[in-house]
Design a protein that fits this description.
heterodimer; A: alpha+beta; 5 strands; 29% helix; B: alpha/beta; two-stranded parallel sheet; 4 strands; 45% helix; 12% strand
Chain lengths: 190, 205
C-alpha cells in the first residue's frame, strides 16, 4: 500500500536526533511490548509480514505521531482483535521457486500500486537497475501478509544508480541497493 | 502520609495500562507467560548487544582467512567464533574499502540484525533517517560526524527483504600492534551500520 511508512525520499521529517548511550528500552512497557510481539510471532498468532502490515494500516497521522513501540502496541492490539487471540495454522508449500534472473541482468522494477502489503518501495518503481546477487527463495510478503497463498520467490539485490532514482541533481557516486522479490521485476529490454 | 510513593506508585499511563491489558489477555490465551517476556527483556538489556558484531570485526581485522569467511558465509563464520542464534534468514557483511563506503537503512520499517547487534537505535528507526539517507547519504553522514570523500562511492543498502546487513569497517591506521580485544573496543554499533568509522583516541595516536 502507498502508505506513510514508505518513507524513502520523502521530505519534511525534520533533522536527525541522535541520543547518546541509549538504553535498550526507554520505559518498562516498551520492553513488555517487544517481548509480547516476539512471543506472538513465535507462537504463530501472526507472521512478521502481517505484523508489518498492521503497522502500515494504522491511520497515517497516528503512524507518524506515535513513538516506535507505541506503533508496535497499536499493531499488536489490532492483530489480537482481528485474530481473537486464536492461532491459525499456516500451511506452507514446498520451498522452491523458478529463477528468472542472474547477476548482471538489467532489470526494471515494476510500476505497481497494490492496496495491500508490498516490499517494493515507491521510490524504486519504474526504475532501472542491475541484479547483483540472488537470495532465498523467501515467502512473498504481498500474499504472506494477508494470510493467503504463500509463494516462494527468489529475492535479488538490485543496484540502482542514485541519479536513475532521484534525477540528475542526486549525489554523484552513489548507488542504492534494494532487495526485491522476483515478481517485482521485469527484464529490462531497453 | 509518607511512603505513598513506594506503596502506591503513580497510576499507570494509558500506554502502560494498554500493555498490561494485552499481556493479561495473551497470558489467558496461553500464548505467553510474564516470565517469558521478562527473559526477552533481560536478553536485550544484558546479553545481546553490538559487542557481538565488534568481536567479529576485530577478529576479521587480525585474521585474513576469517575475514574471507565472514564475507563469504557470515552466519557460519559468526557461529565459528561462538556467536550463534542469529534469528535471520540471511546475513550479508559488506566491506568498506578505500573506494566504497556502505551504509544500511530500512526505509519501509526497521529491519536490522537485532540478534547479532542488539536492538537498533531510535534514530535508525526514525522518519528523518529512513526518509533521507537513501536520497542524501553524504549530507546525513556529515550531520552524524562522518565525511565521505567525493571520490568514494557511497552504497546505501535498503534492507527491504529477509536479508540483514552489517558493515565491516576499515581498520584504522595506527592500530597495527593492538590486541583483538582492544580493537573490538573501537568498533561501535554505528560503525557496523555505516554511519561512523572506528576512531583511534587522540591521546594514543
Amino acid at each position: 500500500m502507498n502508505g506513510v511508512h514508505d518513507m524513502g525520499g520523502t521530505h519534511g521529517h525534520g533533522p536527525l536526533h541522535v541520543e547518546q548511550d541509549e538504553p535498550a528500552f526507554h520505559a518498562a512497557w516498551e520492553g513488555r511490548v517487544y517481548g509480547m510481539v516476539r512471543h506472538a510471532l513465535r507462537s504463530g498468532l501472526f507472521n512478521l509480514d502481517e505484523f508489518r502490515h498492521a503497522q502500515e494500516r494504522l491511520p497515517p497521522a497516528q503512524y507518524l505521531s506515535s513513538g516506535y513501540y507505541e506503533r508496535w502496541l497499536a499493531a499488536l492490539e489490532l492483530l489480537v482483535r482481528e485474530t481473537g487471540g486464536d492461532i491459525r495454522l499456516e500451511v506452507l508449500p514446498e520451498r522452491q521457486a523458478t529463477v528468472r534472473f542472474v547477476p548482471g541482468d538489467r532489470v526494471v522494477a515494476r510500476n505497481m500500486n497494490p492496496v495491500g502489503h508490498t516490499r517494493l518501495p515507491r521510490y524504486a518503481r519504474g526504475k532501472h537497475g542491475v541484479v547483483e546477487s540472488r537470495h532465498g527463495p523467501f515467502k512473498l510478503p504481498d500474499t504472506h501478509a494477508h494470510h493467503l497463498s504463500r509463494d516462494w520467490e527468489p529475492v535479488y539485490t538490485v543496484v540502482f544508480a542514485a541519479q536513475e532514482i532521484w534525477g540528475e541533481d542526486a549525489e554523484a557516486h552513489e548507488n542504492v541497493s534494494i532487495d526485491l522479490w522476483q515478481s517485482y521485476l521485469e527484464a529490462d529490454t531497453i | 502520609m509518607s511512603g505513598d510513593d513506594v506503596h502506591h506508585p503513580h497510576p499507570p499511563t494509558d500506554l502502560e495500562a494498554r500493555t498490561l491489558a494485552l499481556e493479561s489477555l495473551l497470558i489467558e490465551k496461553g500464548l505467553l507467560t510474564s516470565e517469558a517476556v521478562d527473559r526477552v527483556i533481560a536478553t536485550f538489556e544484558q546479553d545481546i548487544g553490538p559487542l557481538r558484531g565488534a568481536r567479529a570485526v576485530a577478529h576479521a581485522w587480525v585474521d585474513p582467512e576469517f575475514k574471507q569467511w565472514l564475507l563469504a558465509a557470515p552466519k557460519e563464520a559468526l557461529t565459528g567464533i561462538g556467536i550463534g542464534d542469529h534469528q535471520v534468514e540471511e546475513l550479508v557483511v559488506v566491506e568498506n574499502t578505500p573506494a566504497v563506503h556502505n551504509v544500511i537503512v530500512c526505509t519501509l520499517c526497521s529491519c536490522y540484525p537485532w540478534a547479532v547487534l542488539g536492538l537498533p537505535p531510535t534514530w535508525y528507526k526514525s522518519a528523518p533517517y529512513r526518509s533521507r539517507v537513501v536520497v542524501e547519504p553524504r549530507v546525513v553522514l556529515h550531520e552524524m560526524g562522518l565525511d565521505v570523500p567525493d571520490d568514494v562511492e557511497v552504497r546505501v543498502w535498503d534492507s527491504s527483504a529477509d536479508i540483514r546487513y552489517m558493515v565491516l569497517p576499515e581498520r584504522p591506521a595506527g592500530t597495527e600492534d593492538w590486541s583483538e580485544e582492544r580493537l573490538a573496543e573501537i568498533v561501535t554499533r554505528d560503525c557496523m551500520i555505516g554511519v561512523a568509522q572506528p576512531r583511534v583516541p587522540a591521546s594514543i595516536s
